[in-house]
Specification:
This protein has helices spanning about 5-20, 40-50, 55-75, 75-85, 100-110, 115-125, 125-135, 135-145, 150-160, 170-180, 185-215. The chain is mainly alpha-helical.
Length: about 220
């Protein structure tokens, strides 16, 4: 997939290649942090993903779902920004280890993102399960401490109730489509099977909270 990248991203990639090792784990030095509130997060998405791409559609859908959840449950804009940016690690500019949660968090850190934001992106949707499959769980936990459970659960809920095309779906539909996309022996499929009971509990708990708040 062709991607458009901002000038800062181009600079980071060039430096990374010149030094012969991953740069995305390094904190930003001497550069003005990028604005990554909800509007800035959406702007970054359009720079990194092609129009019409599934990752863009899904990310926007998750962000909009988070806007609704934040309004109903009185949550901060941090949740919304994290929702828009949760899959930024799939962008060509960010992809490094193959664990999109870790790659996305590292990339956002180079842009000056807060520890709260990078932590949510790093750990969303049972990231530690896939990280263990890839042998990256120690690196993930060392670089990005697990954030407080409430915001992380809300972000995971938004992700697990939004389809690849950004549509609102049930958690049953979400799992069904994931398993249709990946064969049973695929790393993602194995990881999701392992994480499924916990993810279902998170979704059920958030659904009950939303029902009480809206009722």
């Amino acid at each position: 997939m062709q991607t458009r990248t901002p000038s800062l991203t181009t600079s980071v990639v060039a430096r990374r290649a010149a030094r012969g090792r991953p740069l995305y784990g390094e904190p930003m030095h001497g550069t003005t942090p990028r604005e990554l509130g909800p509007a800035g997060a959406q702007a970054l998405l359009t720079e990194l993903f092609e129009p019409g791409a599934d990752r863009l559609a899904h990310s926007i859908g998750v962000g909009r779902r988070a806007e609704h959840v934040a309004r109903v449950l009185g949550q901060p804009e941090l949740l919304v920004s994290a929702a828009y940016l949760h899959d930024i690690g799939y962008a060509a500019a960010a992809c490094d280890t193959g664990l999109h949660q870790l790659d996305g968090a590292r990339y956002l850190r180079t842009l000056g993102a807060s520890g709260e934001l990078t932590g949510l992106v790093a750990h969303h949707t049972a990231a530690t399960v896939e990280a263990a499959e890839r042998g990256l769980d120690v690196a993930l936990r060392r670089e990005f401490p697990t954030p407080p459970g409430e915001l992380l659960d809300l972000l995971t809920y938004c992700d697990m109730t939004t389809s690849a095309r950004g549509e609102a779906v049930t958690v049953d539909e979400r799992f069904e489509r994931i398993y249709d996309r990946y064969p049973p022996d695929h790393l993602v499929s194995r990881s999701m099977q392992h994480a499924e009971p916990g993810l279902r509990r998170i979704v059920s708990g958030i659904e009950r909270r939303l029902e009480r708040s809206l009722g």
